[in-house]
């Protein structure tokens, strides 16, 4: 049979197919290296299930809260009257109650167990049975919630203070040296290298002493001592107690202006102060090298702990709040705010369904947890706010 593939003189007739084969082979090899790298960008780096994806939950486009009739202006929601409690999910209630009462002097006020469809709709978790303990220090309250069913996931093991799921409560002490010695005696886990005194050149924060540590479930806590002429005057009243109360809860935010549009412009909280903190003291307090923070404090009209924004101007590598987080995960904090009308709030929040955790505004006839209606919503960074109507 006639050979129809005529080679040119001096050239291998199989050279061209051979070249194509090698090019294809090297492309396949290259893609095998690229694919895992691309996947790693969306895989968790903490203790979560390896199959879960952690895309950003956050959009700072506040048009999500716009008037549903097409007006792009922000829709004013019912003003927050008071921050009534700060809560967190715990894995072992008895252990947590012992820690907060014996180490930090909180007093147990109530201890209830709840279950049912109303609580499933409120928290966005099916099949819940919760034990909820309310504790008081001074005039402020925390709420600890243990999910007896279903159990959630542990706190991410590689969490850092600049990740967007960071939240803490600032517990005021009358004497930082004694407080630190007491915490050391009780073998708390350090989050700071030690107590830090912010430098005097920092006009708004100079002289403040602070120390970060962790509770048994790895939640961040802060002990704080204000110098004279700084902080709420009540923190300077003579007292024989070492721990006095809760000044504020702090949350890491990606963008202060976006958070102000939510908390100030929509919810009616007032700015109480702002500052920019940096330097070796701030780095060792947060345990983040090169930390430079824009700090903004807000307060509700009728009092309660403040809400403090921590925006990391540097470094900017804090990770987004995991989109697959739920109320039964130990990463969960929940700040409770009192409003006049839950129904009006719910109507305003229906514009952005992705931010509303609750199925709807939920009514509670028995008021076991101290409120008649509630709605759970995420802020622009994923932090959870529980709005209640007494």
Protein architecture, described:
It is a single chain. With 390 residues, the protein is an alpha+beta fold. The protein has a single domain (78-389), classed as Roll (2,3-Dihydroxybiphenyl 1,2-Dioxygenase, domain 1). Helices cover 21% and strands 31% of the residues. The strands form 2 sheets. Strands 5, 6, 7, 8, 9, 10, 11, 12 and 13 form a 9-stranded mixed β-sheet that branches. The protein has an 8-stranded mixed β-sheet with strand order 2-3-4-1-14-17-16-15, sandwiched between helices. Strand 3 and strand 4 (140-149) form a beta hairpin.
Fill in the keyword field for this structure:
390 residues; 2,3-Dihydroxybiphenyl 1,2-Dioxygenase, domain 1; globular; disordered N terminus
Structure summary:
The protein is an alpha+beta fold and 390 residues long. The chain has seven helices and 17 strands.
What does the main sheet amount to?
Answer: 9 strands, mixed
Inertia-based shape: globular
By CATH's scheme, which homologous superfamily applies?
A: 2,3-Dihydroxybiphenyl 1,2-Dioxygenase, domain 1
Show unreliable segments: 1-23, 26-73
Structural class: alpha+beta
Beta-strand content bin: 25-35%
| Count of helix runs | 7
CATH class wording: Alpha Beta
Distance between the termini: 96 Å
Q: SSE string, helix = H, strand = E? A: HEHEHEEEHEEEEEHEHEEEHEEE
Radius of gyration: 26 Å
Any idea how many domains? 1
CATH architecture field: Roll
Mean pLDDT: 84
Topology, number of strands: 17
Q: What is the CATH third-level topology name? A: 2,3-Dihydroxybiphenyl 1,2-Dioxygenase, domain 1
Proportion in helices:
10-25%
